Amino acid sequence: MSNAVAETKTTHTPKPKWLRVKLPTGKKYRELRETVDNYKLNTICQSGSCPNMGECWGEGTATFMILGNICTRSCGFCGVKTGRPGAVDWAEPEKVARSIKLMGIKHAVLTSVDRDDLRDMGAIIWAETVNAVRRISPGTTMETLIPDFQGRTKLVDKMLKVAPEVISHNMETVRRLTREVRIQAKYDRSLDVLKYLKDQGQRRVKTGIMLGLGEELDEVYQTIEDIHSAGVDIITIGQYLQPTKKHLPVKRFITPEEFKALENFARSLGGFRHIESSPLVRSSYHAEKHIL
Fold first, then answer.
1. CA separation (Å) from 132 to 109, 142, 164?
2. Which of 50, 133, 164, 226 could form a disulfide bond with 97, CB atoms 3.0-4.6 angstroms apart?
3. Phi, psi (5° rounding) for residue 108?
């Protein structure tokens, strides 16, 4: 195998067979879908067309995005709109918590757009949402997939204080490609956030990376080692898929065998609680298992 995880291919290359998924089915999935449709609830699972929606909903897991749907950053991989966000909805924590209660969600993943326009980067709404879920749906466990808060530890502390079961922040890609893929983010700043979370006593710290953006295999190994050195407990590794033609193209589809080799490498380092590495893996894949 070539050392490159990045042979250039056209954006019209058809998806390989291992990226094809069955239509979601199952009683729990149908019940959740009916509730979402009847009450016009919003989940990233649907809006992001996640290939694992049926499996996750079948396990009683769903992902919700807070702080609006317009991001202040313009990452080359992300399908969320970029622009000037609207005013903060201070009733949002209650709305999200009631949606989780109504849907009977056992494990909720909370994520958000970046809100660099706000003095607190949205940290107050983040903390209030966790507290609202605990109050209204006390049986629900949580993962919070947070932004980097520009590396401001006082804002990260607000998440540590409310102590969700898992706090995650995604590295997304290797060091060399960070400026192109994430633009306003910084590789070392994200690593510092992850290390800070662990150093301050967060029990489960999680991150994820995507492949197929033009990274070399040795760069992926180095990124996994960097993540391991930061003390991260849970790592997800999945295939990047282009949201629209305006986004970064897929340079290569990584094979299941290559993903398995990366999983074995991560496992050989020791220390990771959970490793998810396969083409269809997304940040929230098997999230309900990561609290164990």
1. 14, 12, 12
2. 133
3. -110, 135
How does pLDDT run across 82-134, given as a tens digit for each residue? 899 999 999 999 999 998 998 888 999 999 999 999 999 999 999 999 999 99
DSSP secondary structure string for all residues of 213-264: SS-BHHHHHHHHHHHHHTT-SEEEEEE---SSTTSPPP--PPPHHHHHHHHH
Query: What span, in angstroms and rounded, lies between the C-alpha atoms of 214 and 194?
Result: 24
If DSSP codes are grouped into helix, strand and coil, which group holds residue 120? coil
Q: How far apart are CA 16 and CA 14, in angstroms?
A: 6
Residue 244, number of CB atoms within 10 A of its CB: 6
Taking the CB of residue 271, how many other CB atoms lie within 10 A of it?
11
Tracing tokens 């997800």 back to the chain, one arrives at 236
Asked if 272 contacts 44 with a C-beta cutoff of 8 angstroms, the reply is no
- Give the global pTM: 0.88
Q: Which of 61, 19, 62 is CA-nearest to residue 280?
A: 19
Specify the DSSP element, H or E, that contains 93. helix 92-103
Q: Which residues face 4 on adjacent strands?
A: 216
R_g of the chain computed on alpha carbons: 18
